[in-house]
Design brief:
Elements: H1 3-13, H2 18-25, H3 29-37, H4 44-54, H5 58-62, H6 77-114, H7 122-146, H8 159-186, H9 189-192, H10 194-214, H11 216-221
Helix pairs in contact: 2-3, 4-6, 6-7, 8-10
Length: 222
């Protein structure tokens, strides 16, 4: 059994469609189809996610795959080392993102306690909150840059993704403007953070609507 046949067999055994595999690996459905028809092979940074998705080891996925000499790069010692490094890089990136997210929670908790409970000066409390948020943002951005993938895969941007990004950009800027205006007008910083929860919910609703309206085309192609 060659690699394309093995990929198709593993996907069906997992009860997944090509569209579902594509979503989980952040590639297009056409890319998954090409892997399973032998038109192309998975890039290095997709080998480990494929193994985790299908619950197999790299050896089980790639051995006796009928691969060409160029594809054998996936199974030599150097490539296995790179896969392991990629996994460690992903773990460090995750820790950075989680750490930054935790600081956001700390910032919210601070503004909720410092003004109404500890009776701190609203301006000083707000300044501390913004400082914590700034540190959290720096940590997240640094983690995303320092521990990014060695080889970024060029992904075909779908119409749904383009539309969602455009709507989300407008929505985020509008939310920020509303948040600042309401917060500075009322000085109720311990309450106005709820605006961001509303923003997050609206974003998910928009994404769901776009998927329902435009995502049917991709499912019909399979």
């Amino acid at each position: 059994m060659n690699l394309p046949e093995r990929l198709m067999k593993l996907r069906k055994a997992a009860g997944l469609s090509q569209e579902e595999v594509a979503d989980k690996l952040e590639v297009t459905r056409q890319t998954v189809s090409k892997w399973e028809t032998g038109q192309s092979s998975p890039d290095l940074d997709k080998v480990l996610p494929l193994c985790e998705l299908y619950n197999v080891t790299p050896d089980e996925l790639l051995q006796n795959g009928g691969m060409t000499d160029s594809d054998d790069l996936f199974v030599d010692t150097e490539q296995r080392r790179m896969v392991e490094e990629e996994k460690q890089r992903s773990n460090k990136k995750l820790c950075g993102v989680l750490g930054g997210s935790l600081l956001y929670v700390v910032a919210i908790a601070w503004i909720m306690v410092s003004i109404p409970v500890l009776h701190f000066n609203p301006v000083a409390s707000s300044a501390v909150m913004l400082l914590i948020i700034a540190i959290a943002t720096i940590i997240i951005i640094y983690s995303a840059i320092a521990f990014r993938k060695v080889k970024e895969v060029k992904k075909e941007i779908t119409r749904e993704e383009k539309l969602y990004k455009q709507i989300d950009s407008v929505l985020s800027v509008t939310t920020l403007a509303v948040y600042l205006i309401v917060s500075f007008t009322t000085m109720a910083w311990h309450i106005t953070w709820i605006i961001w929860i509303v923003y997050a919910l609206l974003g998910e609703i928009v994404k769901l609507v776009i998927d329902i309206k435009m995502g049917k085309g991709g499912e019909n192609e399979e």
